[in-house]
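Hi team, as promised in this morning's meeting, here are the two structures we talked about. I've kept the exact order from the run log so nobody has to guess. The first one is mostly here for context; it's the second one we should focus on when we meet again. Sequence first, then the predicted structure tokens.
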Amino acid sequence: MINNGFVPSWATYASLLRAYGRARYGEDAMNVYKEMMKKGLELNVVLYNTLLAMCADMGYTDEAVQIFEELKKSETCKPDAWTFSSLITIYSCRCKVSEAENMLNEMLEEGFEPNIYVLTSILQCYGKANQTDDVVRTFDRLQDLGITSDDRFCGCLLNVMTQTPKEELGKLIGCIESANSKLGNLVKHLVEEENNNEVLRQEASLLFDVISKDWSLHLKSLSLGAALTALHIWMSDLSKALENGEELRSLLGINTGHGKHKYSDKGIASVFVSHLRELNSPFHEAPGKAGWFFTTKVAAKSWLESRTLPELVSS
């Protein structure tokens, strides 16, 4: 366009910025942002939030602070709830407790209530800092706001427990019991090192009975090793489901997250491209959904059955 003598308009730059931001092309998005600022082209809050969400996913802390300060100087728009959410996520992932708390307070001063995503980020931050009482306080705030704990929030509580001294685990067990009584009972037995395997089996069975089946594999936020391990366990579970005569969904997906793994130089998606190819799997990257790999039920069934054939022949 430029080579043909046309000057890009605000709409052209905005489209580029949205595309690069959503695809997590960090360097390209930042270059467009800087060019817009240099030319005096004012962003709207949607574009600012697109950039900040990208920064949160890619660990661009300094860039996010700069963008946030520019937004606050804007005469045409101001931060909204999603703006503060992105900044809190960035600080929480870096375990910057005071910065995350200050941003939460600023969010409250602007009249925005924290949602479950914000509170999950804050909870993770306190957990990394071993501030168990603040983890409990964050859980209580969730209850006070009338927000129902979801699976991700409970998962974060479990993750925090792995970093918590044994003498303080009881505080977190109480939170988990309140959020999900069946999960809480199971965790309590495990932490108290109950030797009664039958009791553990019963508690686990009660929990598994209420877990809905999801034929998608979600790997975002896992380390590369954990993600690869989860993939092979999931493949094994799918094979067992077929052996038991269960029907798979028409479309199966693997979500690795978009762009780079948080604060890591290597993205899970890039590794999975070659690994899935080595496995001769039918999963392929989704053009319109960064970090997602999809296949059909028919293709997955054929592939899984072909993988079990060598075992059947050898036996």
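And here is the second protein, the one for discussion:
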Amino acid sequence: MAKTIMIQGTMSNAGKSLIAAGLCRIFKQDGYRVAPFKSQNMALNSYITEEGLEMGRAQAVQAEAAGVKPEAAMNPILLKPTNDMGAQVIVNGISIGNMLAREYFAYKKTLVPEIERAFHKLSQEYDIIVIEGAGSPAEINLKQDDIVNMGMAKMADAPVLLVGDIDRGGVFAQLYGTVMLLEPDEKALIKGLIVNKFRGDKTILEPGLDMIEKQLSIPVAGVVPYMDVDLEDEDSLGNHLAGTARTDRTAVEIAVIRMPRISNFTDFQVFSSIPRVCLRYVDRVSDLGNPDMAILPGSKNTVEDLLWLRESGLEAAILKLKAREIPIFGICGGFQMLGESISDPFQVESETAVSSVRGMGLLPVRTVFGKEKTRTRVSGSCSSVGGIFEELSGMEVEGYEIHMGETTRSVPPLAYVMESQSGSRLAKMDGCQRGNVYGTYIHGFFDKEGIAMTIVKSLAEKKGISMELDDGFNYQEYKEEQYDRLAAQLRTSLDMDQIYGIMFRKQ
């Protein structure tokens, strides 16, 4: 059976996912076969496995850091919010429908056997399992029948490292308050404290570290600095969605429309790794400015987000960009919005009474939502592409599709791909293009080697600026370097001897 270590936090966005990813990388470097695990994840960023199963993208990133193939067992329950009161419930990679929060709270205890089976499967295949909690274990109104924090720690008999976020202030109160709200058997599972996102002189912090150790009788396992690594954020609390500052005219500027129900915003992170590219997320007309390209991302509620675009004035602003020949690129739900119409006769995504809405009319496509979700990995190549991005013609593409609905087109596709489905390979057409407007269903479209760089070069040429770009840039290699960088920073700030002792002796 695998050894375990669990990372819990004093609050959401304390840095659990990043520290878990870093530990996955460290254990891999030290020769162990390691897997990430999160019993229940709530996020709109998801990933499709080779088997066509859906899981949280954070665990896919952690698996990548561990050097292993992502599988649905690493995240047996995924909740994708549909509104403030409910979510789509995905179990072992397959949606079982939408539930209100109260419904799910009563239902979740029936999922314990699924969690146990998934964890047992991994524990037989790996040496170490790095388990991530969710939010805080001290939410006393939610502790009954907990399946993701201390409830999971007990299921896995896992020692816990508790992470506090000093950047948001009150880290000692966070740590102390969290521990003191736990039951005695839960407190006993916490074997180490971590202060995360520290800036400044550590010697000034040390008296507080000594005091918290004495107050709680739990050792501090490390003080982690605010790390300079470029890795995907788990959800919309991450810093990648915060920036709206505009750049100067010597850089390429890409604006991503931050819709209320934005999903898989990590599709565009590759652009932030390219020098002299400014990637901005905007949710107001006043912040849109004059970008060199605008992107419409995926959405969990395509119809409602399209109506929001219309009401906010951003649709009109995007149409004005198009009139000025500024390229527009839609991914998944964004691709659907760019079409002529979207129909949702079964209200599978939209909760409005509207069964059909007018699209933005920029692409000659029509979308109708059905009851079945498309979940598949695809690979292929771009067709004969026109417009500003004609250099994409023939380039290889790869990624995955997660969407409701089927889209019909009256023009050639953007790409010809093969999809993996039930062990077979099926040919299909994807997306389309008209003028400088492009659309695709493929998440990860920009990640394939050469795609993002070709787009940036075309935008720079149109803007009339000279950019020296690395033609050999490989985003996968870049991410590997970032994982190694994360591991190196954690090795210097965490007491790894202590952590190994906790895992192997469970002291």
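Starting points for discussion:
The chain has a mean pLDDT of 92.
DSSP finds 16 helices and 26 strands in the chain.
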